């Protein structure tokens, strides 16, 4: 009976993960497709207003990105506590409604100034109440369902599904925008969250053990609550603990490794160094996403081969090598060569560190929702800083071009290579703190 019950639980967990991966893949596909279509639609909308309007509209997207990250910083802890109180599933479904509404409005409103402002708001809301917190909640649900030993592999499978969605989103967005225009792409990506919401509502269970029959449990406080009943700040608890502080810092730096904040600088770099246009840059972005997908698919086997601690170190080293190669590349083949080490690293180390972070937070008496909120807030700060860092490095390098002692044009990529080394130092230091 015990064996049969255990087999049933394993089957249910795998069914849950399959449904979660399908939902995440669809949301990621629509999100990446929207990212491309947004730039095309805002340029198309602002063009009749003049060149200055195009520049202002495009620069407004960067401001919206930062403002959205600010909102995410303040809202993430709130959503984390709400998921502890009302359940993960209702909050997850809520994160699918906002993008559907905003994308529909962006497509239907035709007045240029109003549409431009809606596109800004759409970009900001995606960070605060859209795809970004949606992915964070997916990670919290994995924490609820799987044991500590199983979580890194489950997170790697989720990351692979997200990467696959990104690959499909890149290709489908470019193809459909060329055929039917970016407005039509927006309407399609508005429908995707609604279909995903219906699928998730039917197939995903509530994973918060404190929620019974869709309502908060009456059993009292969560098993993760502080036994003496004293109120405590999740920020204060985690940031004053050396181990969680170091792990959280390493996790925050992974935001600098994502392609999105580097995208604009990458396009300029490829145009300057290789004379590549948007088509070639888009293909490289798809190749970057494919490398991340391969890394996620290989993560489980690599963790078994190296062990989790060494696996994180190997991925940090390979990431540093990859971006250093990118920074010094002067030909197409040498640029593409950087994708090889990324095919084994990606952001795979994050799957292990997130599990350690959540485990440590629960040891300190926090709930998974509270821990997720703080982690998302740390990520929001990094997402605010990353585009600013890359843009400033590029502008300085471009201004000093051909001057003695000038920054290389690949300075933004070199900064990522350095960040990967810093991550490794934080990773190793977290074990020294634990031993002490």
Automatic annotation (TrEMBL):
**Bilayer topology:** Multi-pass membrane protein
- GO MF entries: transmembrane transporter activity
Q: Which UniProt keywords apply?
A: Membrane, Transmembrane, Transmembrane helix
Q: Which Pfam families does the entry mention? A: MFS_1
What Gene Ontology terms describe where this protein resides (cellular component)? membrane
- Indicate yes or no for the key word Protein transport: no
Localized where?
Membrane
User: Which positions, given as ranges, span the membrane?
Assistant: 91-114, 126-146, 310-328, 334-355
| Protein's recorded name | Tetracycline resistance protein, class B
Native species of this protein? Answer: Symbiodinium microadriaticum (Dinoflagellate)
Originating gene: tetA
